[in-house]
Amino acid sequence: MAYSDKVLDHYENPRNVGKMDDKDVNVGTGMVGAPACGDVMRLQIKVDDNGVIEDAKFKTYGCGSAIASSSLLTEWVKGRSLEEATQIKNQDIADELGLPPVKIHCSVLAEDAIKAAIEDVKQKRES
Amino acid sequence: MQFPIYLDYSATTPVDPRVAEKMSECLTLEANFGNPASRSHMFGWKAEEAVETARRQVADLLNCDPREIVWTSGATEADNLAIKGAAHFHSKKGKHIITSKIEHKAVLDSCRQLEREGFEVTYLDPGADGIITPESVAEAITSETILVSLMHVNNEIGVINDIEAIGKITRENKILFHVDAAQSAGKVDIDLEKMQVDLVSLTAHKVYGPKGIGALYVRRKPRVRIEPQIHGGGHERGMRSGTLATHQIVGMGEAYRLALEEKESDHERMLELRTRLLDGLKDMEEVYVNGDLDRRVAGNLNISFNFVEGESLMMALRDLAVSSGSACTSASLEPSYVLRAIGLNDELAHSSLRISIGRFTTEEEIDYAIDKIREAVGKLRELSPLWDMYKDGVDLNQVKWAAH
């Protein structure tokens, strides 16, 4: 399969690879997918006192498009409020990366991951 | 070195230049272009002679009579002809067929079609080593069984079934035995004097011949009867009509002649290269060879790098042409059914590479492949949350995954 230049760029030079302390009350973790499906994404965000995402990290087990989707997402969410970050749609990711139809599920997974991470940090902060 | 490096010889092989040369002598006006079925002039006679020479060359590799070779368009057609042809001809004797879960799709789908027509099919489970045991065949036989169809060498994991032992069982029980030898001809000894096999599917393009040509061996003693699947001019003693493709057939003949001539040296060299490849990879953590390593064709290595997804691995290995058991691109997201059938879990099945070595592979290419694979696996593990979890001592089988 031919990959778009943007997918290749994120794959070759993934942004914001890493892991944050998920015990930190300001860190939200979203882990989605399953090894059985060939995709597991872990997306983490760190939120400041104003509810703005100040940092984001990811690790992804999956195809190049899954890696690129999560890498791109970490770039996009930094500096956004939680509210703004929830507005990101999988189609935006798919369009930006030029994903073919068979790879749309990679962008869906990325959207699921950011939603799960936001949910996680909200819950932590409330409790 | 030329890039990308071709390491997918189990998928297909380049045509040997010596084969291409022979083929090119059967095309143009000045060359041997005639219809082998033309009996009234020199052009036909010459073409027929070339076809019969090729038939003998193919028969020589299998130690059988040339009259037992029926030309087809490839192994898929040969599988269809053998399985449907035998089942249709013998359906009055019984309607039970035995095959295995790790056969090629040409066999599995032919069996599925027969199921739709009212036949019953038993799909044997291979062992964790990928081998179908003679005992499991014997146990599956019923009074209704008319045909057993098993592959000699598996296309994904390269393991070799004991055809001679299984043939004894089928012959004792007066059941036809079909063997798909697409991956074994020219690589593993096939002696049809010794092996009690009735039907054998063959192809040219896995042994440096052209695509689009294959053959079905149909035993004469004891005589095996099958119903033709393609009707027409009655070529190939009525078993497969259609004008013979002289250039293709000549190519297959020459490829098989070379395979016989160079079998020993090819085998030795490929085994050396595969050992070199495995030695270069096996000290990495969480690396598994899929299927039995010893009972395997020399050119095949199927290997899983745990916690790394196969497609992303192939992407990192863009200058190596290999294949993966991962099927991230397919709609089903199902990994290889062969790897699943030998008991691999999903992670390992998704993490597999099939690297197949051939006549034109060099040591330099293998060394380059080792370096690239080690680098890519290392990089992707740094990116893998599963690797993190493994390193943290998390048992991945205990994690509740949200399947999507």
Verbal overview:
The complex is a heterodimer of chains A (127) and B (404). Helices cover 46% and strands 20% of the residues of chain A. Chain A is built from 5 helices and 3 strands; from the N terminus they run αβββαααα. In chain A, helix 2 (64-77) crosses helix 5 (104-126) and helix 4 crosses helix 5. The relative contact order of chain A is 0.22. By secondary structure, chain B is an alpha/beta fold. In chain B, strand 5 (145-151), helix 6 and strand 6 (176-180) form a beta-alpha-beta unit. Chain B is globular.
Short description:
With 127 residues, chain A is an alpha+beta fold.
Oligomer: heterodimer
What topology, given as strand order, has the largest sheet of chain A? 1-2-3
Q: Which stretches of chain A are poorly predicted, pLDDT < 50 over at least 5 residues?
A: none
| Mean pLDDT rating of chain B | 95
Binned strand content of chain A = 15-25%
The count of β-strands of chain B is 13
Poorly predicted spans of chain B: none
Largest sheet of chain B at a glance?
7 strands, mixed
Question: If helices are DSSP runs of H or I spanning 4 or more residues, what is the number of helices of chain A?
Answer: 5
What is the topology?
The complex is a heterodimer of chains A (127) and B (404).
Chain A lengths: L4 H8 L14 E8 L4 E9 L5 E9 L2 H14 L4 H5 L3 H8 L6 H23 L1
Antiparallel strand pairs in A: 1-2, 2-3
Helix pairs in contact in A: 1-2, 2-5, 4-5
Chain B lengths: L4 E2 L10 H8 L17 H21 L6 E4 L2 H16 L5 E5 L4 H12 L3 E5 L9 H7 L4 E7 L11 H10 L3 E5 L18 E5 L10 E5 L27 H16 L1 H19 L5 E3 L10 E6 L4 H7 L3 E2 L1 E2 L12 H5 L4 H5 L1 E5 L6 H20 L2 H7 L13
Parallel strand pairs in B: 1-11, 3-4, 3-5, 5-6, 6-7
Antiparallel strand pairs in B: 2-8, 7-8, 9-10, 10-13, 12-13
Helix pairs in contact in B: 1-7, 2-7, 3-4, 5-6, 8-12
